[in-house]
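ARCHIVE CARD
Drawer: 12
Card no.: 0347
Subject: one protein chain, sequence and derived structure
Cross-reference: see card 0346
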Amino acid sequence: MSLVRVERRFQGPKRSGNGGYVAGQVGTALAERIGAGVVPRVTLRMPPPIEKDLALDADVEGARLTDGEAVVADAVPVDAAFLADATIDPVSPDEARAAEAAYKGLSNHPFPSCFVCGPENPDGLQLKPGPLGDGRTACTWQPSGDLVTDGLVDDVFVWSALDCPGGWTIDLEGRPSVLGQLTACIDARPQPGEQCVALGRYLGEEGRKTFTASTLYDADGRVLARARHTWIMVDPALFN
Protein backbone atom coordinates (compact mmCIF):
# COMPACT_ATOMS: atom_id res chain seq x y z
CA MET A 1 0.00 0.00 0.00
CA SER A 2 1.10 3.56 -0.71
CA LEU A 3 -0.37 6.94 0.10
CA VAL A 4 -1.62 9.43 -2.49
CA ARG A 5 -2.33 13.04 -1.63
CA VAL A 6 -4.10 15.17 -4.23
CA GLU A 7 -2.72 18.65 -3.67
CA ARG A 8 -4.86 21.66 -4.52
CA ARG A 9 -2.80 22.29 -7.63
CA PHE A 10 -4.25 19.06 -9.05
CA GLN A 11 -7.91 19.93 -8.54
CA GLY A 12 -10.56 19.65 -11.21
CA PRO A 13 -13.60 21.34 -9.69
CA LYS A 14 -12.64 23.46 -6.68
CA ARG A 15 -13.61 20.79 -4.15
CA SER A 16 -12.19 17.65 -5.75
CA GLY A 17 -9.23 16.28 -7.68
CA ASN A 18 -8.84 16.36 -11.44
CA GLY A 19 -10.20 13.14 -12.90
CA GLY A 20 -7.33 12.52 -15.30
CA TYR A 21 -4.68 13.11 -12.63
CA VAL A 22 -6.38 10.82 -10.10
CA ALA A 23 -7.05 8.17 -12.75
CA GLY A 24 -3.38 8.44 -13.67
CA GLN A 25 -2.31 7.66 -10.12
CA VAL A 26 -4.46 4.52 -10.03
CA GLY A 27 -3.86 3.47 -13.62
CA THR A 28 -0.09 3.87 -13.36
CA ALA A 29 -0.01 1.74 -10.21
CA LEU A 30 -1.84 -1.04 -12.08
CA ALA A 31 0.16 -0.62 -15.30
CA GLU A 32 3.38 -1.31 -13.38
CA ARG A 33 2.03 -4.77 -12.48
CA ILE A 34 0.32 -6.01 -15.64
CA GLY A 35 1.91 -7.37 -18.79
CA ALA A 36 1.70 -6.53 -22.46
CA GLY A 37 -1.61 -6.74 -24.25
CA VAL A 38 -3.70 -5.28 -21.42
CA VAL A 39 -4.28 -1.71 -20.25
CA PRO A 40 -5.80 -0.13 -17.12
CA ARG A 41 -9.43 0.99 -17.05
CA VAL A 42 -10.01 3.37 -14.15
CA THR A 43 -13.47 4.16 -12.81
CA LEU A 44 -13.96 7.15 -10.53
CA ARG A 45 -16.49 6.21 -7.84
CA MET A 46 -16.77 9.60 -6.08
CA PRO A 47 -15.33 13.12 -6.33
CA PRO A 48 -11.67 12.61 -5.33
CA PRO A 49 -10.90 14.40 -2.05
CA ILE A 50 -8.12 16.97 -2.13
CA GLU A 51 -5.43 17.66 0.48
CA LYS A 52 -6.06 14.36 2.22
CA ASP A 53 -4.03 11.15 2.41
CA LEU A 54 -5.66 8.35 0.38
CA ALA A 55 -4.60 4.70 0.35
CA LEU A 56 -3.59 3.09 -2.96
CA ASP A 57 -3.36 -0.69 -3.30
CA ALA A 58 -2.50 -2.53 -6.52
CA ASP A 59 -1.76 -6.04 -7.72
CA VAL A 60 -2.04 -7.86 -11.05
CA GLU A 61 -5.83 -8.11 -10.72
CA GLY A 62 -6.56 -4.44 -10.08
CA ALA A 63 -5.98 -1.29 -8.06
CA ARG A 64 -8.05 0.70 -5.56
CA LEU A 65 -7.75 4.20 -4.17
CA THR A 66 -9.65 4.53 -0.90
CA ASP A 67 -10.57 7.16 1.66
CA GLY A 68 -11.11 5.06 4.76
CA GLU A 69 -13.87 2.62 3.79
CA ALA A 70 -14.96 4.67 0.76
CA VAL A 71 -13.64 3.70 -2.69
CA VAL A 72 -12.52 6.82 -4.55
CA ALA A 73 -11.43 5.01 -7.72
CA ASP A 74 -10.61 1.51 -8.88
CA ALA A 75 -8.93 0.00 -11.90
CA VAL A 76 -9.04 -3.30 -13.73
CA PRO A 77 -6.97 -4.61 -16.64
CA VAL A 78 -8.77 -4.78 -19.99
CA ASP A 79 -7.71 -5.98 -23.40
CA ALA A 80 -5.63 -3.39 -25.25
CA ALA A 81 -7.85 -3.96 -28.28
CA PHE A 82 -10.39 -1.70 -26.56
CA LEU A 83 -8.19 1.22 -27.64
CA ALA A 84 -7.71 -0.02 -31.21
CA ASP A 85 -9.88 2.76 -32.64
CA ALA A 86 -8.85 5.45 -30.13
CA THR A 87 -6.04 6.86 -32.29
CA ILE A 88 -7.24 10.17 -33.71
CA ASP A 89 -5.93 11.48 -37.04
CA PRO A 90 -3.20 14.03 -36.25
CA VAL A 91 -2.95 17.70 -37.11
CA SER A 92 0.12 19.91 -37.24
CA PRO A 93 1.14 22.09 -34.28
CA ASP A 94 0.11 25.15 -36.30
CA GLU A 95 -3.38 23.71 -36.85
CA ALA A 96 -3.62 22.88 -33.15
CA ARG A 97 -2.60 26.42 -32.17
CA ALA A 98 -5.23 27.82 -34.51
CA ALA A 99 -7.87 25.65 -32.82
CA GLU A 100 -6.78 26.98 -29.42
CA ALA A 101 -7.98 30.43 -30.39
CA ALA A 102 -11.57 29.09 -30.30
CA TYR A 103 -11.20 27.29 -26.95
CA LYS A 104 -14.52 27.85 -25.19
CA GLY A 105 -13.08 27.35 -21.72
CA LEU A 106 -11.34 30.72 -21.79
CA SER A 107 -14.62 32.55 -21.27
CA ASN A 108 -17.15 30.00 -20.02
CA HIS A 109 -15.50 27.14 -18.15
CA PRO A 110 -17.65 25.03 -15.79
CA PHE A 111 -14.55 24.26 -13.66
CA PRO A 112 -12.07 27.12 -14.25
CA SER A 113 -9.63 25.82 -11.63
CA CYS A 114 -9.07 22.53 -13.51
CA PHE A 115 -5.44 21.37 -13.39
CA VAL A 116 -5.46 20.34 -17.04
CA CYS A 117 -7.45 23.02 -18.86
CA GLY A 118 -8.53 25.63 -16.30
CA PRO A 119 -7.65 29.25 -17.17
CA GLU A 120 -7.65 30.13 -13.45
CA ASN A 121 -5.06 27.53 -12.42
CA PRO A 122 -1.65 29.16 -13.08
CA ASP A 123 0.16 25.97 -11.98
CA GLY A 124 -1.86 23.71 -14.29
CA LEU A 125 -1.09 22.30 -17.71
CA GLN A 126 -2.99 25.19 -19.35
CA LEU A 127 -4.29 23.08 -22.24
CA LYS A 128 -6.76 24.87 -24.53
CA PRO A 129 -8.56 22.19 -26.58
CA GLY A 130 -10.33 24.09 -29.32
CA PRO A 131 -12.77 22.70 -31.90
CA LEU A 132 -11.60 21.55 -35.33
CA GLY A 133 -15.18 21.55 -36.61
CA ASP A 134 -15.51 17.82 -37.24
CA GLY A 135 -16.13 16.43 -33.76
CA ARG A 136 -12.47 16.76 -32.83
CA THR A 137 -10.53 19.15 -30.62
CA ALA A 138 -6.84 19.98 -30.77
CA CYS A 139 -4.29 21.85 -28.68
CA THR A 140 -0.55 22.02 -28.08
CA TRP A 141 1.30 21.05 -24.91
CA GLN A 142 4.87 21.78 -23.87
CA PRO A 143 5.35 19.91 -20.57
CA SER A 144 7.21 21.88 -17.92
CA GLY A 145 10.28 20.57 -16.13
CA ASP A 146 8.47 20.04 -12.82
CA LEU A 147 6.42 17.21 -14.38
CA VAL A 148 9.48 15.01 -14.95
CA THR A 149 10.55 11.67 -13.48
CA ASP A 150 13.81 10.06 -14.68
CA GLY A 151 14.25 12.66 -17.41
CA LEU A 152 10.82 12.24 -19.05
CA VAL A 153 7.32 13.46 -18.23
CA ASP A 154 5.80 11.29 -15.51
CA ASP A 155 3.08 8.85 -16.59
CA VAL A 156 0.56 10.51 -14.27
CA PHE A 157 0.79 13.76 -16.20
CA VAL A 158 0.47 11.99 -19.54
CA TRP A 159 -2.80 10.51 -18.23
CA SER A 160 -3.78 14.03 -17.16
CA ALA A 161 -3.11 15.48 -20.61
CA LEU A 162 -5.32 12.78 -22.16
CA ASP A 163 -8.29 13.92 -20.05
CA CYS A 164 -9.73 17.27 -21.10
CA PRO A 165 -9.11 17.19 -24.90
CA GLY A 166 -11.82 14.52 -24.92
CA GLY A 167 -14.08 16.43 -22.57
CA TRP A 168 -14.13 19.56 -24.73
CA THR A 169 -15.60 17.64 -27.66
CA ILE A 170 -18.80 17.79 -25.58
CA ASP A 171 -21.06 20.83 -25.47
CA LEU A 172 -20.08 21.55 -21.86
CA GLU A 173 -22.50 24.47 -21.64
CA GLY A 174 -25.45 22.21 -22.39
CA ARG A 175 -23.94 19.05 -20.87
CA PRO A 176 -21.55 20.04 -18.05
CA SER A 177 -19.74 16.79 -17.30
CA VAL A 178 -17.06 15.21 -15.14
CA LEU A 179 -14.87 12.23 -15.91
CA GLY A 180 -16.38 8.92 -14.87
CA GLN A 181 -14.02 6.43 -16.50
CA LEU A 182 -10.68 6.56 -18.30
CA THR A 183 -8.91 3.75 -20.14
CA ALA A 184 -5.42 4.69 -21.29
CA CYS A 185 -2.27 3.28 -22.83
CA ILE A 186 1.08 5.10 -22.79
CA ASP A 187 3.44 4.03 -25.57
CA ALA A 188 6.15 6.59 -24.76
CA ARG A 189 6.67 9.62 -22.54
CA PRO A 190 7.57 13.06 -23.92
CA GLN A 191 10.58 15.10 -22.93
CA PRO A 192 10.10 18.31 -20.94
CA GLY A 193 9.63 21.28 -23.23
CA GLU A 194 8.78 19.07 -26.22
CA GLN A 195 6.08 20.41 -28.55
CA CYS A 196 3.26 17.88 -28.27
CA VAL A 197 -0.20 17.90 -29.82
CA ALA A 198 -3.27 16.54 -28.01
CA LEU A 199 -6.51 15.70 -29.82
CA GLY A 200 -9.97 14.69 -28.65
CA ARG A 201 -12.85 13.06 -30.53
CA TYR A 202 -16.56 12.77 -29.75
CA LEU A 203 -17.84 9.18 -29.97
CA GLY A 204 -21.46 9.38 -28.82
CA GLU A 205 -23.76 9.69 -25.83
CA GLU A 206 -26.31 7.67 -23.90
CA GLY A 207 -28.48 9.30 -21.26
CA ARG A 208 -26.20 11.22 -18.88
CA LYS A 209 -23.08 9.55 -20.31
CA THR A 210 -20.90 10.86 -23.13
CA PHE A 211 -18.13 8.83 -24.77
CA THR A 212 -14.94 10.35 -26.18
CA ALA A 213 -11.37 9.47 -27.14
CA SER A 214 -8.03 11.30 -27.09
CA THR A 215 -4.54 10.90 -28.52
CA LEU A 216 -1.24 12.57 -27.62
CA TYR A 217 1.44 13.02 -30.31
CA ASP A 218 5.09 13.97 -29.93
CA ALA A 219 6.99 16.64 -31.86
CA ASP A 220 7.66 14.21 -34.73
CA GLY A 221 4.01 13.17 -35.10
CA ARG A 222 4.39 9.81 -33.33
CA VAL A 223 1.68 8.53 -31.01
CA LEU A 224 2.68 8.85 -27.37
CA ALA A 225 -0.58 7.77 -25.72
CA ARG A 226 -4.24 6.99 -26.39
CA ALA A 227 -7.37 6.94 -24.26
CA ARG A 228 -11.12 6.49 -24.18
CA HIS A 229 -13.39 8.23 -21.69
CA THR A 230 -16.85 8.08 -20.21
CA TRP A 231 -18.18 11.42 -18.94
CA ILE A 232 -21.12 11.92 -16.58
CA MET A 233 -23.36 14.97 -16.87
CA VAL A 234 -23.58 16.85 -13.53
CA ASP A 235 -24.72 20.08 -11.92
CA PRO A 236 -21.48 22.13 -11.61
CA ALA A 237 -22.82 23.86 -8.50
CA LEU A 238 -22.50 20.56 -6.61
CA PHE A 239 -18.76 20.41 -7.34
CA ASN A 240 -17.57 24.04 -7.12
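Annotation on reverse: The helical segments are 19-31, 93-100, 155-161, 164-167. The two ends are 31 Å apart (CA to CA).
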